[in-house]
Specification:
- The structure is a single chain.
- The protein is mainly alpha-helical.
- It folds into two domains: 7-69, Arc Repressor Mutant, subunit A; 74-212, GntR ligand-binding domain-like (Four Helix Bundle (Hemerythrin (Met), subunit A), Up-down Bundle).
- It is built from ten helices and two strands.
- It has helices at residues 7-21, 32-39, 43-56, 74-95, 101-120, 123-138, 144-156, 158-165, 168-186, 190-212; strands at 59-62, 66-69.
- It has a two-stranded antiparallel sheet with strand order 1-2.
- Helix 1 runs parallel beside helix 8 (158-165), helix 5 runs antiparallel to helix 6 (123-138) and helix 5 packs antiparallel against helix 9 (168-186).
- This is GntR family transcriptional regulator.
- It comes from Saccharopolyspora rectivirgula.
- Residues 5-72 form the HTH gntR-type domain.
- Keywords: DNA-binding, Transcription, Transcription regulation.
Length: 215
C-alpha cells in the first residue's frame, strides 16, 4: 500500500507536472499566492517545494522578484546530458546482461505506454512514460547511488524535455529510436544499447540547440 503524499510532496509533484507539460514555461514567474490558492494549500509547503526545485536548477529565485522557471541554457543542457551519458552508459552496459523476464516486461510496457500516448496526442503522458522507459532500462544495473544522481539530472531538465516533445518531428524520432533501444534490450546487446541511448540523447540536444539558440 502506498502512503499518501505529504502536502509538500503533493505540491512538488504538481509543480513538476506543470513544468514538464509547459504549463509553467521557461522564464515564467511563479505567482505563489495564485499557485497556493489553485492547489488549495498554504504558502509554507509551496515555499518548501520551490526550494527543492531551486536546488535542482528547475527554478531560480531573485530578490524582490521571487521565483520563476529557469530559462533554457544550451551550456546547462550540454553539461547535464554529458553527465547523463557517462552515468547512464555505465548503468546500461551492466543492466543489459542482467535483464530478467520481469525487467523486460516492465521495459516493454513503458515502451508501449509511450506509443499509446504519442498516438493519442497526450504529451504529458508520453513524457511520463518516456521517463519510466528509460529508468526501467537502467535500474536493473543495481546501482542505487548512481541512479539517485541520474534522477536529479533528469529532474533538472524537465523544462527542456517539454520543449523537445512539443514538436511532431521530435516525437516521431523518439518513437523510432525507442523501438531500436527496446530491441537492443530484449537481445541483451549491451554495446548497441549504450550506442543507441547515446545517439538518442545527442539528437535531443541537437534539436534543442536550434530552439534555444536559433540562427
Amino acid at each position: 500500500m502506498h502512503r499518501p503524499p505529504t502536502t509538500q510532496e503533493f505540491v512538488l509533484g504538481e509543480l513538476r507536472r506543470a513544468i514538464v507539460s509547459g504549463q509553467l514555461a521557461p522564464g515564467q514567474p511563479i505567482r505563489q499566492d495564485a499557485v497556493a490558492q489553485q492547489l488549495g494549500v498554504s504558502r509554507v509547503p509551496l515555499r518548501e517545494a520551490l526550494k527543492i526545485l531551486e536546488a535542482e536548477g528547475q527554478v531560480v529565485y531573485r530578490p524582490h522578484r521571487g521565483y520563476s522557471v529557469a530559462e533554457l541554457s544550451l551550456e546547462d543542457l550540454q553539461e547535464v546530458y554529458r553527465m547523463r551519458e557517462l552515468l547512464e552508459s555505465e548503468a546500461a552496459r551492466i543492466a543489459a546482461h542482467r535483464y530478467t523476464d520481469t525487467d523486460l516486461k516492465l521495459i516493454t510496457e513503458a515502451h508501449d505506454a509511450v506509443e499509446a500516448a504519442a498516438t493519442s496526442g497526450d504529451l504529458g503522458s508520453m513524457i511520463a512514460a518516456n521517463r519510466r522507459f528509460h529508468f526501467a532500462l537502467l535500474e536493473p544495473a543495481g546501482m542505487p547511488r548512481l541512479m539517485r544522481v541520474v534522477r536529479t539530472l533528469w529532474d533538472a531538465t524537465d523544462a527542456y524535455r517539454a520543449v523537445y516533445y512539443n514538436a511532431d518531428t521530435n516525437r516521431e524520432r523518439v518513437r523510432r529510436e525507442h523501438d531500436a533501444i527496446l530491441h537492443a534490450a530484449t537481445t541483451h546487446n549491451a554495446e548497441d544499447l549504450v550506442r543507441l541511448l547515446n545517439e538518442h540523447r545527442q539528437h535531443a540536444v541537437a534539436a534543442l540547440r536550434n530552439t534555444i539558440c536559433p540562427e
